[in-house]
Amino acid sequence: MKSDVYHAFMLDHASGALSSDMALAAELHVLLCNKGREAAELWRMTRNALSDKRPHANDLDHERLPEALELSVGDFTTVPWKRGLSGVHYAKRSNGKLMRLDPGQSAPEHSHSALEATVVLEGRFEDGHGVFKRGDLVIGRPGFRHRPAAYGDQMCICYVAQEPTPFWRFS
To answer: For 135, left (φ over 0), alpha (ψ -120 to 50), or beta?
Structure first.
């Protein structure tokens, strides 16, 4: 993932500019990964330094944190998985979706028309651009091609969020 895209995403998180499903992906990354915590703190400090308001205790409150905590320790055996046409299993969440890749399983190579954020919750994940572990955040820009696959002999579960496709793309 390009560093500038990652930092723009984390800056949007610190400023509260992400949609609720993207904010949940950011909260999961911050909760589960040292890199995420460090980036979030850097951008919070930058925001506070540039703000006319003094920072206060609520700056550390995260609206999506309860749901992120639930997902980070969730029992995925009770999730009502549905098999998609590609064979990959999905479960819709109020925001975004869970994706399950069984050992050796991959989704077809594809791209997206809008920004996508994927956070590994369990196992490891590869997409042709790297191998990612629990807590890692993978950001796919529009047109970014990848082939998500479980890595190794473990099942991989990810949280996947997508920005809505802009209406002008349908014109």
So the answer is: left
Can you give the pTM of this predicted structure? 0.85
Tokens coding 99: 């994706």
136 to each of 49, 67, 86, 124, 130, how far by Cα in Å?
28, 17, 24, 9, 11
Report pLDDT digits (tens) over 72-114.
887 898 899 999 988 899 999 877 999 999 999 999 898 888 8
Query: Taking 70 as the threshold, does the pLDDT of residue 2 lie above it?
Result: no
58-67 residue pLDDT tens:
444 467 777 8
> Residue with structure tokens 């949609």?
19
Cβ proximity of 149 and 126 under 8 Å: yes
For 9-26, give the secondary structure using H, E and C: HHHHHHHCCCCHHHHHHH
User: Which residues sit opposite 98 in a β-bridge?
Assistant: 91, 159
Residue type, 53: K
| Distance in Å from the first CA to the final CA of the chain | 30
Q: What domains can you pick out in the chain, each with its CATH number?
A: 3-72 (no CATH), 76-170 (2.60.120.10)
